[in-house]
Amino acid sequence: xxxxxxxxxxxxxxxxxxxxxxxxxxxxxxxxxxxxxxxxxxxxxxxxxxxxxxxxxxxxxxxxxxxxxxxxxxxxxxxxxxxxxxxxxxxxxxxxxxxxxxxxxxxxxxxxxxxxxxxxxxxxxxxxxxxxxxxxxxxxxxxxxxxxxxxxxxxxxxxxxxxxxxxxxxxxxxxxxxxxxxxxxxxxxxxxxxxxxxxxxxxxxxxxxxxxxxxxxxxxxxxxxxxxxxxxxxxxxxxxxxxxxxxxxxxxx
Length: 253
Prior knowledge:
The protein has 12 helices and 5 strands. The protein starts with a strand and ends in a 7-residue tail after the last helix. By secondary structure, the chain is α/β, with parallel strands linked by helices. It has a 5-stranded mixed sheet with strand order 3-2-1-4-5. The chain is rod-shaped, with a radius of gyration of 29 Å.
């Protein structure tokens, strides 16, 4: 278990990393910016990669560094300045204040009192805002991959675009994962069984599929089909392997 004390200033922050026995493993200073924050986390992970085994203490619960750490799953304990001042008096008779010393004091304090302290939790509204931001990024990513998949199919397998209500629907993706080109579909003797396995349950969906596949394909070279099939499989595989996309999928067929 690591106990990490942080003492903040406007331009930089001091830290002290200690273990359960109180042994100091690392102490240093970083600039109070994103580069400093990432360097700080990297330093922690050198000693303990499991964030569940790390407790960070600091006096200012409203610091941007607190948000940075909590968002990444670290346990951050607030330490009241008066509590640290009294703790300093008990440990350092001269009562002299020094940032590096205070970082060590905070690390020792949370090691001794962390069971009585309540960790800082990010407000629900901030979590919701982060979720919205992350969801927007996922949607943008999905749109890019969807456009690329549409363009790829248009080049060699346009029947697939007409066969499905949405090319990124789970049923469409599962079908495209099985079949590479129009000739593979038409040669299949048990197509109805496969459609059911791919969750084509509605009558109108099946009719749309058959109408699209009955259209005569254009003459396309085997080399183009091979290259486009490879790209199609990569894109379809990405959709199927990325769980967040499932929550952004369109209506079922």
